[in-house]
Amino acid sequence: MRVVVQKEPFDLGAEANAFAAADTGMGAIVTFTGVVRDLAQGDLDVMEIEHYPGMTEKALTRIATEAQERWSLGDVLVIHRYGRLAPGDRIMMVATAAPHRKDAFEAAEYLMDYLKSRAPFWKKEITGTGAGWVAAKDEDEDALTRW
Amino acid sequence: MRVVVQKEPFDLGAEANAFAAADTGMGAIVTFTGVVRDLAQGDLDVMEIEHYPGMTEKALTRIATEAQERWSLGDVLVIHRYGRLAPGDRIMMVATAAPHRKDAFEAAEYLMDYLKSRAPFWKKEITGTGAGWVAAKDEDEDALTRW
Amino acid sequence: MDVLYFAWVRERIGVPRERVETGAQTVAQLVEELRAREPRYEAAFADLTALRVALDQDLADFDASLSGVREVAFFPPMTGG
Amino acid sequence: MDVLYFAWVRERIGVPRERVETGAQTVAQLVEELRAREPRYEAAFADLTALRVALDQDLADFDASLSGVREVAFFPPMTGG
């Protein structure tokens, strides 16, 4: 398991290749990558991501550990950035390896659902006209009920 | 949409990066990669993949089109190899881009479920003691019922 | 019409494709004609539940009409991915 | 104990963290003490349903005990991913 919280950009392709190469006994590899979208109608200049150093790593490690206990998995990777990002920038990625595709998919979705609502990150959108914290969505909290 | 059927290896990382870079308006990118596992208890030498040239491209394009009609998606990528592969080799990948993670995940799972049972590929395992065609699994056919 | 075989169907019949002159109206009738030819066809078509058929590169049923069809393919259930 | 604030809670209170000497037994009691201090705390803690709390970096409830706790953090619902 690898959990990374960093300010710097990451290379999706290099991470995906390294992840896949490290776990050759697995038949299925799933990656999810989150990208900064311009939600504020073409007006988003900066997405600022705040986090809780210490708790972030702890929460992500716990979520990844729970996924590994729940599904038959190989390795798990979680990368999440903080700081100032621009539209189009990649915020985060998860990767899962498993003998079977169902486990790899479900574990990746589980990681994403928990990461969204249980890892201490907060997004602030800075637009041409002001700045505002992104509100948590009910649907993200509801997504946890399926697990 | 890009559908590729090829004998040559593909570079998961390069494909993932190119796919993500081409579709910057999307918040979520999912990739699935299938890897040749040694199912025959450490004995697998070669996995030979036969396909039906012409129908293969047609079937994959149809499956990808159906996914794009069914979910709110950006681009879709399908790459599938044929010919002789070794354990650890990457057989195929799909990638989906979507505004929301749920669509990207579901569409990728849909692509995989249909690709498994409706695209004309057949796998033959060649081991130290012989060769045999991989049997289709009931669970793969059953997986289609959820869509 | 052109008849194509894949995977173990191809191996049992011994050729990947052949030209077949037939008056068969349906896939099922074509199968019966082929089975009557030689033991290798009989072996390949012994269990139709283990076979799939495509007409002009689209999956079809065994009771489908061959009218206008130029290419018929027989193969086992697919195992891609 | 150390009390940390994140996102708009931090902005309303004006500091990211502070040392608080308290006899509060529970998170709820600590919140009441803070609200009584100054309007900026009152503003930050006006609606507890809009807040989350972590005790020593684990999510907790507002009725959780503070016994042995060294670090309390208040923040809005998380929006990672």
TrEMBL record, chains A, B:
The keyword DNA repair does not apply. Pfam families: MoaE. Converts molybdopterin precursor Z into molybdopterin. This requires the incorporation of two sulfur atoms into precursor Z to generate a dithiolene group. The sulfur is provided by MoaD. Pathway: Cofactor biosynthesis; molybdopterin biosynthesis. Belongs to the MoaE family. It comes from Ruegeria alba. Keywords: Molybdenum cofactor biosynthesis. This is Molybdopterin synthase catalytic subunit.
Automatic annotation (TrEMBL), chains C, D:
It comes from the Bacteria. Gene3D superfamilies: 3.10.20.30. It holds the Pfam family ThiS. The keyword Nucleotide-binding applies. Keywords: Nucleotide-binding. Belongs to the MoaD family. NCBIfam families: moaD (TIGR01682). This is Molybdopterin synthase sulfur carrier subunit. It comes from Ruegeria alba.
